[in-house]
Amino acid sequence: MLSIKNLTKSYNGRTIFKDLSFTVAPGEVLTIVGPSGIGKTTFLNILAGLIPADGGSIELDGKELTIDGTRQGSEVGVIFQDFNLFPQYTVTENITLAPRIVAKEKKATYTKTAAELLADLDLTEHQNNYPFELSGGQKQRVAIARALAMKPGVLAYDEPTSGLDEASTERVTSIIQKLQSRNATQLVVTHDLPFAQSLNGKVLDFSKDVER
């Protein structure tokens, strides 16, 4: 379970959010909605350990995660809006890089995991392609596979349908639903309300439900 308690963040004297508290059960999808600039991505970056919070706590499966912006663990896997794939590496190399270098996994382990993820996300035929050779939807699936390769406790998406066509959006929805059926805990930040409504889970509206 993911538990957020009294999380607070300010920039230059402006409160982005304060005393933000909620829980996400294992296998649950929480969709975070609201207009641009309201703090959704800031929250996601704090959750990922990329920037510090001013107060509060984040707990995952009974373990408290640091909120000072220095966290090095892979407890939270984030799929960023612009994918952040390494252009000099193939699809397989993008997926296996962190397990190989960060997690120090054996080659047999990360190779097997990558092959399973490639098959599961219908990317096997693109395993030797470079990012510039992929469509937006394919890059999105590679980014999801790369995050899953580190076996995170929570998977978080930042505007996963931004710039995607209808077919690719439906594919992303299908992937999220498939992972939910496998008990994956997921957070989805989006301003795409039809997409948010297509997901089976709770909704947190940053414009209405979050104190400032």
UniProtKB/TrEMBL annotation:
GO terms for molecular function: ATP binding; ATP hydrolysis activity. The gene is artM. Keywords: ATP-binding, Hydrolase, Nucleotide-binding, Transport. It holds the Pfam family ABC_tran. SMART domains: AAA (SM00382). It is an enzyme of class 3 (hydrolase). The lineage of its organism: Bacteria, Bacillati, Bacillota, Bacilli, Lactobacillales. This is Arginine transport ATP-binding protein artM. PROSITE patterns: ABC_TRANSPORTER_1, ABC_TRANSPORTER_2. PANTHER family: AMINO ACID ABC TRANSPORTER ATP-BINDING PROTEIN, PROTEIN TRIGALACTOSYLDIACYLGLYCEROL 3, CHLOROPLASTIC. It comes from Fructilactobacillus sanfranciscensis (strain TMW 1.1304) (Lactobacillus sanfranciscensis). Residues 2-212 form the ABC transporter domain. Its EC number is 3.6.3.21.
